[in-house]
Amino acid sequence: FKVTNIFGSPALLDTLSRHCVDQGIRLESVTRVISAGAAVPVRTIRRMQRSLYRDAQVHTPYGATECLPVSSIKAGEIDDEMVDRIESGDGVCVGRPIEPNRVRIIKISDMAFNDLSETTEMPFGMPGEIIVSGPTCTDSYWRRDTDTEFAKFGDQNGNTWHRMGDVGILDGTGRLWYCGRVSQRVDTGKEVLFADQCEAIFNQHPDLKRSAVVGVGARGRQVPALCIEVKHKLSPVDTERVHFDLLQLAQAHTITRSIRTVLFHPGFPVDIRHNSKIGREELAAWAAKKMQS
After folding, report:
1. What is the pLDDT of residues 216-226, one digit of tens each?
2. Residue 195 within any structural domain of the chain
3. Which residue segment(s) compose the domain that 195 sits in?
4. CA gap 127, 177 in Å, rounded
5. Which residues make Cβ contacts (< 8 Å) with residue 246, sequence separation at least 6?
6. Does residue 136 sit within a domain?
7. How many Cβ atoms from other residues are within 10 Å of residue 208's Cβ?
8. pTM exceeds 0.85
């Protein structure tokens, strides 16, 4: 068919790239691959890139239905130093904001804002909620006034700002790093854990298909738990080994040191559109029951 462009979810790219690598296939007509819908693992991006010819590129834009694209990064920009940062828990780099978008990182709050002046901007390198203003930023939700009131506010110049609902960091070079969803943060009262930052540490384990860090209990007193889905059925001995390995990994990194519970899940709940976004709220309820039993 001489396909030149591919757009797919991270789950689709994971399956396609594995098939190409296993069968020694290179997609010679493809010049561009775009993946969105959830954070794309570095190993998937690199595997997909190996399935293309040298002048082709994998792009992973960041955005939402309400504002797209906000930023983007190419596979060629993801060097070994960036991979080390991602796998050490710095977050997932999603590139630099695309002009003329304006991106700010503000202090996390569960309250609505009426104006940009009510927000507190975070310094470079510090996590906070991602807000965006730009030409593709929608002004409101159709007949959803409560959602509009929470997610949208203006500034003194009449611009609309959209709350992405995501936690992010802007580094000193202007790159945006995605850390996880605001609603899925784990607040222990002593520290706040962000899911995608922590999970990148554990997802390096060769037996894991994916992981999810969830909070059990009321926010401010939550106990963090690591839920995992393994690639293949494990023997009792291998189950103990994986459990031990993950606890060791947790202790080796400052941001995951408070995680002392590992729970094996038969198959994560995911969104039906992308098969990539993990239903961490559902997993948190499951984890609470498991930890009580």
Report:
1. 999 999 999 99
2. yes
3. 185-292
4. 9
5. 202, 205, 226, 228, 262
6. no
7. 17
8. yes
